[in-house]
Every structure is written in C-alpha cells, then in structure tokens.
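Reopening this ticket.

The earlier resolution said the output was attached, but the attachment link was broken on my side. Pasting everything inline this time so it's all in one place.
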Amino acid sequence: MSKWFFILILGLTAMGCAVRSDYYQGQRSLENGNYDAAISLFQYSLRTSPNDPKILTSLGYAYFKKNDLQRAIQYLEKAKSTDPTYGKAYLYMGMVYEKQEDIPKAIQEYNSFYQQFPLTPTGQKLKARIGVLMRNQITKEVQEAVQKEKYLSVNSIPENTIAVYYFSNQTGNAELDPLQKGLTDMLITDLTQVKSLKVLERTRLQVLIDELKLGETGAVDQSTAPRFGRLLGARRIINGAFAEPSKDTLRIDTIAVNVATSETDAQANVSGDQNGFFTLEKQLVFGILGDLNIPLTQEERDAIQKMPTESFLAFLAYSRGLDYEDRGMYREAGQEFKKATEIDPNFIKASEKSQEVQVLSETPMTGASSEVAQLEQTVAKQDVSTKAETGTGVEAFSPMSRLESIVENIGDGFIPETGTKTEEQRIPSQVQTTAILNLTIEW
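Inline output:
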C-alpha cells in the first residue's frame, strides 16, 4: 500500500473526528449529570452516524436519566434493531421498564443481556436481579389471587397447567427433609421439557405457602387441591411422598389431582436402591405423563432423561441450598451449592445457583427501582476494566496499535503519547494532524 494513499485514508478519518469529539464530549456531559448538553451532542453525532448503536444507546440512556422514558425507548429500540448484539441497549431498556414498573418486560430485556454476556459481572448481577424481580412479580400475583379468591374460577384455568407440590418425607430421617424441595425442583425441571405443558415455577408455590403461612408440612390432598389450583393458576397439582420401607431402599409415590373435579387423574409409584434415586425420579415422571396420556416426542424424552448429577450427596446439598435460598439465607445457600459442585464439578445447575446467591449475599436486592443505580455502577466499572484489558490507556504501543489509538482518541482531544488537549475539539488540530503524519511515516 502506498504511503501517500495511507495518508489520504488517515486524512479522511480525521475529518470524521468531529463526530467522535461530539460523542465523547456527550459522554463526559452525561457522566457529569448535564443531560441536556449530552443529548445535544449525541444528536449532533447522529447526523453523520445515524445507525451507530453506541451513539443511539447513549442517547437513549441520557433520555432515561432525564426521565423522558418514551424517547429513551425510541432510541434504545433503534439501537437494538441496528445491532441486536449490542448488550448495553438491552440493559438500559430493562432499566427503563423497571422505572415504568413493567417488570415482565424488564426481566425480558435483562435476560437478553444475560444470554449474551453470562460470565461478566453485569451479567451475573442481572441473573440475580431477574430472580428477585420474578419473585416480586409472582408475590404480587399470588397476593392478588388470595384477595380475589372468591371470584376465581377453576374453569378459567387452562387444561395444560400443572403445579408440583412439595413431597412429604415419611422416612423418619430428618436429614432427608431437603429432598422435599429438591425432588419437586427436579420434577418441575423435567416436566418443563414437555412443550404441551405449562408447568408453574417452584417459586410460585413457595410464595403461596409463605403467604398462607402454611409451613412446608401443609399437605395438599383431594379436598384442598381445588383451592390451591385456583390460587396457583393450575388445573392439576402433583404431590406425593417418599419413604424407606427397608434399609437403603427408597419408595416414592405420587398422584396428580384435577382441581376442577377433585379427582385423581394419574398416579405413579417407584421403588429401588437409594443410589438409583435419579433413575427412580425419571421413572416417576414418565409414569405420571403416561397415566395422563400426554404424548412425548423423542426430543422431549431425551431431554427428560438427562441427569443433573450422578451424586445423591451432591443433590442433597443442592436441596439444602434451595431451602436456605427460600429463607433469604444466601450465604448459607451459597455454601451448600458450592458443596454440591465440589462433590460433583459437573453439576451445572448447582454452579449457576452458587454464582447467583453469591451476588445476592454480596449485594442484597429487594427489587426496588432505586437499586438500578447498583447496575449502573457495575457497568461503569466493567467499562473501565474492559478499557484496561484492551490496552486503550497510555502504555507502550506497537506502531499499528498506536495508530488505532490516535484515531480513536482524537475525538477526545488527546494525543495518547503526550496527553495534551487541543483548544478546539471539533476540528482536528495541527498537532493532531502532524502526529498522524509522523506516525504514518514511521510505519
């Protein structure tokens, strides 16, 4: 490539630096709380780069900070449509929806960010926040159902809805009490693989138990099932018990009650060695589905057959973690989830729960919109960390990285090697142009 052709390219790049300058000045105004100035500068930048997702997102965020939520949504949506992989647009959109108290949409946006960046600090915080917001939303719905209980009709509940109640521990061994929740959690996970069913979250059941102050021993039978079905929004409720008829032998019995008729629609029972607990659970699931005459595809069968872990002790620790989590004891829950992963490093669900409760123990969340500031701080810290990792500071550069850095930083009015600021930031100065030419000659 000709040296002079390269100089020409750099000259054209320099002409666009005014737009970069407006963007970076807008960022500084945004950080300083001068939202009107930030909006003006971002709008000016859009004249030349109307489809830049970074500018569109920053503009949407500035409107969010100014509390102009409709315009915030307008620009953030455009940023998402321009570049569906630009995560910040989803993050800020979630914040907008939280401020509007539209929690389901906020959860959807946060989840979109998490799916793209699950291992980042922001992604981990959002995963934990999604759980908190979901619980709050479910609590609100359950409370409304309890208040309007006499107006609720079982007939309005879809036929394909199923809830799984906690199993009763009839072994006489209190150490197995955590299996009451663990077994329910596992059944819900497996039944969720059936696309024709709508399986209610375990959280919804726990919230209802807490709301009615039943305690975990408040069993559901044929007489109480209709009420629970109305309050949970489930046409069928699955519940049962596990026992040890002999040493090292486990028996699990379950029934599915139709809340509209108070009759048993299906039942299944399995028994075998405790070490074969997971195989027993799979047999139980297929038994219930078979008795309900629910057809399964091969894909659904394969998904149900997947074992979360092969260690009963790891699953018992995971189950204890669920119980601690339900009680808001996140540190203790984290210890149990960590113990489960130490026993079985391939226990993915335990690992995910461990990370989630660790965030909640370090940064408690109630779901209040004021906590969004914590997310903003996390994003700011992550941005700084990313810049450090990608070498956009003033450390030593290779010739090409020096060139890229100068082009990137001209919009800020800084020359990386000297740190000097130009008098006029919208027009490339003689100092900047000379720096480009000198570097080009060197290269």
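Reporter confirms the inline version is readable. The mean pLDDT is 80. DSSP finds 19 helices and six strands in the chain.
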